[in-house]
Amino acid sequence: MGNRNRTNRFTGLMIMACAGLAAPALADEFTQEDLQRWQQEYRTVVDRGEKLFHGGLPSRNTVSCDQCHPNAANTHPETYPKFQQQLGRVAALRDMINWCIRNPLESEPLAADDPRMNALEAYITQERRGVALAPGKH
Amino acid sequence: MTDPKRRRLLKAGGALLAAGSLPLSLVELAFGKDRREHFSFAYLSDSHITHVRGREFVRNWDRGLIRAVAESNLLDPRPDFIFYGGDIAQLGKPEEIDHGLEILSALRGEVHHVMGEHDYYLDLGEHWRKRLGPDHYSFDHKGVHFVVLNSILTFDDWTYHRWSSAAERMHQMARLDNPQGSPFMVGESQRAWLKKDLDTVSHDTPVVVFSHSPLQKIYKGWNFWTDDAEQVQALLQPFDKVTVLYGHVHQIQYNQIGNISFHAAMATAWPWPYPSSYRQQAAYLPKLTVNMNRADPFFERDATGWQFIDLDSGKVDVHYLLPGNRNRVVAWDGKAGHPVDTRYQAEADRIPPQTHY
C-alpha cells in the first residue's frame, strides 16, 4: 500500500509539473500568493452576500434584509446557535435567515447548502468581525 | 394631573395601551402662553409604503399605518391636528405617496407633513409638493410657534450629477447603510428663511421644530445626521423653550443640547438598530438615551409605538406607549437640566432588553 501511495503521489506531482502548475511540494505548505487568493475568494463571497442582503434576493414583496438590518446590525451571528424563544428550540443563524426570508420578505427559503446562504452568512459575519463568540447569548 | 383634559388623555392612552400598540405619537402641549389653552397633537412617522406590483403594496407596512390612523382616531380629547414626520413612501413613487395619503385620509383632523428622503429623491419632491404643498413653513397655534423644515437635502453634485437616472438616485438614497450615500442638510437658503422667520418671534414664545432627520449628529454612516445641525441649533438657542421632534431613526432617542430638547418618533413600519450595535464604526448616540427594548421580529408591530408629550412650563415630558412592552415616560428633570426616563434612567434600573449590542 505504502509503495502504491507513493507512486500515485509521484505521478500526481509529475502531472502537475508537466501542466506547469505552481503546486506546493507538500500538502501543508502554502505561499503568500495562496493566502491572497484564498482571501480574494472569501471577499468575492462576502461581496455576493452584501448584494443579496441589499435587494439581491428574489424577494416576492421587494423587502430586503438591509431595510431592518443596516450593515447587518442586530443579527448577532456570534450568538448562534442559541435558544430562539419564539421558535421554542435552539436555532442556527441560517434558520433565522430563512425565517426572515419567509416572513418579512414573504419569499421562499433557501436550501441549507445553497451558495447564497453561505454568501449571506459570510457577509453577516464579516460585518460582525472582531466580536467574541458568545453562543447561546440572548 | 389635576387638569381634567389631561386625565382624559391619560385614560385614553391607558385604554389604547391595553388594546394594543399605537405606532404614532400623540403630543400634548401645555406650555401655550395661556395655560388654559392646553392642546395636543398626534404624531405619525415613517410608514415607508412600498409598491410591489399592480395594486399590491407591502402588507406589513400598510398595516402599521392603517393601525396608527385607526387608533389615533380614538384619541380623546381630540388632537388639534396631526403631524406626519416623513417617509410616507419607500421609493418616492407617486403610487406610494398616493396610497399612503389614501390611508391617512381616514384621519379625523388636519394633517401637517414633513418631507422625508424616501419622499424626495425620485422626483425631487415634485409629487409630494403637488399633493401636500411646501416642504418648509411655519405657523402659530395657541401661543406656540411651529416650524417645519426639509432637512433631507444634500450636496447638489450628489443630487444632480452623480446618477444615471432618477430611479437610481432614489435607490441609492433609500439604502440606509450606503457607502455612496450623502449627508443630509437643511441648506443655506432654508437656514436664511428660518432666521428670517424666527426674527419675528419673541424669545419667550415656545418653539417646536419638525424635521425628518435629527438636527443633531449621531451616526453619519446611516444618516442619523444633519450636516448643518450646529448652524440650525445656533438659530434656535436664543429661545427659552425649544423642542425638536424628528423621525427617520425608527427608535427612541432623546437629548438635550443647550436650550433645545430633542425627541425622536417611532416608525409605523419597522424599528432600526441603534448605531452603536454596528461594531465597525463609532456612533454618538446621546448618552441620555435609555434604549427602547430590542425588537421581537415575530411580533410585526414590536418596537413601533406611540408617545404623547406634555410640556409643563415649556419643558418636555414624553409618554411612550409601546406595544407588548411597559410604558415609558421621559420627563424633564429641572435639577439635572435635561430629560430623564422616570423608571430606567439609572444604570442599575435598566432591564436586559434595553441592552443592544
Q: Tell me the number of structural domains of chain A.
A: 2
| Largest sheet geometry of chain A | 2 strands, antiparallel
Radius of gyration of chain B: 19 Å
CATH superfamily of the largest domain in chain A: Cytochrome c-like domain
**Proportion in β-strands of chain A:** under 5%
Counting DSSP H or I runs of 4 or more residues, the number of helices of chain A is 4
**Could you give the order of strands across the largest sheet of chain A?**
1-2
Count every beta strand of chain B, where a strand is a DSSP E run of 2 or more residues. 16
Shape of chain B: globular
Return the CATH class of the largest domain in chain A: Mainly Alpha
The CATH architecture category of chain B equals 4-Layer Sandwich
Number of helices of chain B: 9
General form of chain A = globular
Compute the CA-based radius of gyration of chain A.
21 Å
The major sheet of chain B is characterized as: 6 strands, mixed
Greatest chain-chain contact: A-B, 26 and 29 residues
Within the largest sheet of chain B, what's the order of strands?
7-8-9-10-12-11
Could you state the oligomeric state of the chains shown? heterodimer
| Estimated structural class of chain A | mainly alpha
Low-confidence stretches of chain B: 1-23
What letter string, H or E per element, gives the SSE order of chain B?
HEEEEHEHEHHEEHHHEHEEEEEEE
